[in-house]
Fold:
Amino acid sequence: MKSKMYRLKHGLVLSLAAISLCIAPGLCGEELVPGYVAKNKIQQVATGIEWNTDLKAAEDKAKESNKMILWINMIGKMEGAT
Amino acid sequence: MRAVSLSEEPAFSILKDELVCGYRDISKEPWAGYSGKHEVGGNAINTSNGAGPHNLQTFIMASDGTVLTCLPGYWAPQDLVYEIEFASRLNDIYANPKYGPAQRRLMFRSMHLAHIKEHPHDMSKRSHMQHFDQNYEAEHRLRTTDTIKESVKATLGDGSNVPSDAFKTTDILMHERMAKRPFLAYAEFDTARYSDYGRPQYDKNEDQRDTSGLVDKGARSKKDTIGNDPSKKARRNRMIKNIALQGLRTGLRFAR
Structure:
């Protein structure tokens, strides 16, 4: 009986530890990027890369430069809220 | 979902120097999903590959707009680069005049399916489907979904509890779906169907988290959303209905 209680108690502690590890995103393979870091990175992507918003224009440029096209469908704007 | 991860090297330099880039806002598309609204200075999260497929799709296309591959949802920058390299091999096939259309399509299919086996183990580990998406698939389309491994699906009864490892990883799902769409023009590509798995809402409450990563439930309930949020639509419809009713009442009052 005593060992059953011991196992139950320790099992509970281990489960809670596992749950709390998964709540903290960094430890579950998901990393939270703070706002000020995210802002700099977004600005770098929005201004450092030329973004076309017209696919036809992008195709013309790609044909001219013999490049492939990377086209993103996204909710929101590249330089604004998403 | 935001472009934060695209700033990582070598993804950033490849996008900047080796590709022509573009984007469009799909907020108003009927098939788009929704999420919490993130301002530029808000927190971001590096999540798993294929998360938020209704909210974000990254196409790699030939210069004439023919789709070589499409990555649904978020993808880690190193995995995006890996898939760009694969797309360039498809682009070589597409541009090679020695292959006829039928042969090209055949090669497209076999190359997409073969690429699944080429994926590094770490990439597959990063491609675990989100649990809320797995639950949605099990609950809403257990019999028809292609997200569950066929060998497991046959053994499942209605209302079965589907184990997490019964689901395909998103890197497999992506190539299996692409293999059925050989060299389609962007305009012909059925993005809605292609990117449809899991629930329409993707949200990790990034801006409602404290420094330890815990979500503030009070803030979460008050936040604004972006995209096709059904509760927002219902609120708007209720408001329109109320205004119309009020107008009708006022008109009737005047008529008397």
About this structure: Residues 1-32 of chain A form one domain. DSSP finds three helices and three strands in chain A.
